[in-house]
């Protein structure tokens, strides 16, 4: 509905899951689906049947169409395929599918409490400037937060600040990162925390990220972390040695499964975990710290039943997510690099203390590369967000606004690798401007008696994209279909009714600003007014030249404006101009 069948690739078709749920697909001819994969479902326009691909051919469904004559859907329907069983084909405008890292498949999103969503995202460790990999994660979850709210859910979004306990090495060795920074700068650790927390908030505002509902800190929840350790000790799944407390992974694995999120086996961890200095207290190298006894020089310490020390890094997220979202909640998110060991340890801690699996849907964002190479400070292949805004880096040709960078991030699916490069950023800048120009033009459109374009089908396609695991690149492709509609209507090639015009306006503005979180770049009003005045003078001069049949001068003005990125179009109802 609203899609060109030629453009539909297998990656955009929903595979049947074990839940026996399938997303309702646009109507198309299955013969036009390139490289179909076994288990794919399409709605065949030639036979008015659903068809499933069995690996060699398409099998037709038994039963009637689920479409009304006008193309709308009259309800969910069980579809039977000969030799392939029954499947429920659902109206995608009413169901959200989310890729769950725990099960490695897309699942229908069903929150624990209808109408409410609890979401926890691991926030930054505030010992340095937030890097672009962090920003990509937080922008992605801001988009998810926005879309859930847009669908009408009441969302409690918790994103923590790690201000203690994160050692240099995730395997419980080295110095606290914040303490080390404070020592090197000869300032208090909380000065480091304050400075980089404010910097983080400033970057989030520049990228137009909504603030979370709650932003708790690790140091503000020491009591809760101690209480969790006591529960785990009581349950016999941790042990204390010389003032430090460690989680017993092998003991836990006797009744539970450690490694189920990252698909790692404890037996493999035993062979692959190297012995590290300072870990002689551990029963096994794969055990992790719940509480560390502080060395004499460690300035950030708290009193506990075991020693003066500090909590392990993994514990804070378990404590804060449990306190604000409950023992079980809907979504836990973070970067792909946190899947192991951090999120794996969170699951183990929660199950060891509460006896229940803590999270319904685990969502992870993928990594960033720069000009095709992994970002790394050690190699110099690294830029800060502020470098993007100023262009003060040899890795980029020019500066880019936060709105353009956010748009660039949204053009890749959150689970795909995103490469920052000059060509891609420049292309995104042009695309962003096309989108904003179309939105400005949209407000000037006038309706006709009827529509010659399928606006309702296009609107459905926008929802379909986001309901397919927050597929922002497909959504953006649909938004540019909307841009085409706007230009066609303005140029008189298509017509739109008053009702459809309101749908077009509402859908474009809602998905661009409310869901994707894009903003219009602010311009100097006085400069903009003067520029518009100059353009009107030039266009009037060109119009006079055309009336006087001085086509050489008319074409010269048009061509020279085009070189400057100003496109002049002669339409039946008058002359318009757009800026590239």
Description of the structure:
Helix 12 (455-467) packs parallel to helix 14. Residues 1-26, 66-78 and 88-93 have low confidence and may be disordered. The protein has 580 residues and is of the alpha/beta class. Helix 1 links the parallel strand 10 and strand 11 (154-159). It has four domains: 5-94, no CATH class; 116-365, Rossmann fold, CATH 3.40.50; 369-515, Four Helix Bundle (Hemerythrin (Met), subunit A); 525-579, no CATH class. The chain is built from 16 helices and 25 strands. It is found in: Cytoplasm. GO terms for molecular function: ATP binding; cysteine-tRNA ligase activity; metal ion binding. It comes from Elysia marginata. Its cofactor is Zn(2+).
The gist of it:
Belongs to the class-I aminoacyl-tRNA synthetase family. With 580 residues, this protein is of the alpha/beta class.
Produce the secondary structure layout.
Elements: E1 21-23, E2 27-28, E3 41-44, E4 49-53, E5 58-62, E6 77-81, E7 85-90, E8 97-100, E9 105-108, E10 116-121, H1 132-150, E11 154-159, E12 167-169, E13 173-176, H2 177-185, H3 189-206, H4 222-234, E14 238-241, E15 244-247, H5 249-255, H6 266-272, E16 288-293, E17 302-303, E18 308-311, H7 313-325, E19 329-335, H8 339-354, E20 359-365, E21 368-370, E22 373-374, H9 385-390, H10 402-410, E23 418-420, H11 422-442, H12 455-467, H13 472-490, H14 498-515, H15 525-547, H16 551-563, E24 566-571, E25 574-579
Parallel strand pairs: 1-7, 2-3, 10-11, 10-19, 19-20, 21-23
Antiparallel strand pairs: 3-4, 4-5, 5-6, 6-7, 8-9, 12-13, 14-15, 15-16, 16-18, 17-18, 21-22, 24-25
